[in-house]
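Fold it.
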Amino acid sequence: MSTDDRFAKQRIAANLEEPVAEAGNLARKLGLSPYPVNYWIVDYDEMNELIAYGGFQNRYPHWRWGMQYDRQQKQSQFLGGKAFEIVNNDDPAHAFLQESNTLADQKAVITHVEAHGDFFANNEWFGLFADNPDAAGMLARHGETIREYMQDPDIARGDVEQFIDHVLCLEDNIDQHEPYSPVETVEERLEEIEGVDPEDQLENLDLSEEVKRQVFDEEWLEAQADDGENVTFPAEPEKDVLGFLRKHGKQYDESAERAVEMTDWQKDLLELLRREAYYFAPQKMTKVMNEGWAAYWESLMMTGERFAGDDEFVLYADHMAQVLGSPGLNPYKLGLELWEYVENTENRREVVERLLRVDGVSWRNFTDVVDFGEVQSLLEPPAWVTDVVGHLDDIDPEDPRVDADALAAARAGEFDVESYPWKVLTYDGMAQRHYSLLKPQFRGFLSRIGKSELERLSRYMFDDARYDSIEAALEDVDYTRGWERMREIRESHNDVTFLDEFLTQEFVDDNDYFTYEYTHASGDYRVTSTDHEDVKKKLMLQFTNFGKPTIVVEDGNYRNRNELLLAHQYNGVMLNTSKAIDVLKRVFELWGRPVSLLTIVKEFDDHDVEVARRRDREPEPREVGKRIEYDGENVVVNDVDWAAVEHLAATDIDYNTKPEEWL
């Protein structure tokens, strides 16, 4: 970095000191508890490099980073995309701001990052890896270790790079629902197979070590089983394929024409990359939740609290609209809409539960006797909550919605209350100031409640408090309930559970979601459903197991020959066979012996397709079991009996949303 560049970045950083400090204060005032964040100013090329590296400055040498850097650079150059920031999950977190950003963009990035920091610190899925991940240090150490292996004169750099390629093909084949733990160094591999203990038997024989080593080698020992039975392991299908290969894998020695132990550097490398896969897994599992969470609080701070200045507001709104309007499956848009829906439904429930306790109001007559216009008026906060500056001298410091110390400081002129009016309010005051049911876009949400929901709320409601009027009932409304519910969900959910629980028919109708399918009959795509269950199926398909096929280890002693049998847990979506074969070849390099994969495919009869096309209907596919095998030289694909794959077939989960009759 040149001296001029360094000075330029220092000037930018100096201008951002106040926004950074106040964004952190505002986030905590809103009830967020983020990791401390270190902010760094980087230029365009450095930002592209950081994005390629996954948000970290030091990674291991590999061609994948260069490929990702080139893709990011061309995306910015030719497609008009722009990277405003990148932040990583660490304590403290590190966020990188692009120096070419306007001040409005920098403020947006900072508020966005504070919300990400809160999500990283409080979501339990991130805690599965470690309470204090020290990710920057861990990844830097991994990079240094791999760099040393590449520089070792006894190890060919090409071999290291090729081994990394093999492992990276399987980086998502871990058990992301379990905490990370290093694989033990197991010498007792056979002890996992019940009834097999040939080593103990050999100890009872009077044989020299040389005879044991030459005749009864480790491969022979592993192939043995009690009473000649075909013994399999693991006892249950193993999702952590990388962990299984680290524990039991070998390499194929071409000169010896047999499997031999992996070298120490290979074992070490496999475990390092497996650890990284577990570190990055929560980010993949919570992309919609995390980005939606950050977009929600960023928007509230930038617009609701006018963190964007008057001269910055239009530019910010334009850039936010571009982010939310990006085509395809947009995690920012979907996540933001879901979080707003969660907040609105919880706030609506709070209000309705109060109203159902009013004498003369029941779930049956609710919509007839409740004046929703009057309810909206009664929920409006007092004028001093929305206009702190205009009522500064009238605010009661004893009110629980007021921060008495901050109010005194504001009256004494110790801070700019026009820029930071929120400092005068407590968390309770902020919740009432930003109550979602009073926002213009959500003013009809309360009145849209259906009879079925009213009945459900009434059924499980305790009559522990009764009110003689609607006014009295609404005085007891808890304005923080929506935010509190959001924080509860943020702690425990991932994208799959989030979508499963909160994507309702009301949400789908409000936000115009639908499904579409490819039709064999017409050879094009058609809208198939607006039912929320169908929309949910399609979305969950893209988030379950990171949107990748779920592959498990079924047998590490397949055919009683130490071959590896993998299985595809079929969910109605077929594997890409050519890609599956490529991955099997990589797995062979990590197993050292023949590998097989069981899966299910859909086959269509040409005659049935033609008949269906004429009748404008979809043909019925036939599901067939397949076994793909690779022995180091040849690939063989065979049909298998349905009994061999029946346990892999989808049962109650089916991602097909095609109606039986096309209209």
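The chain has a mean pLDDT of 88.
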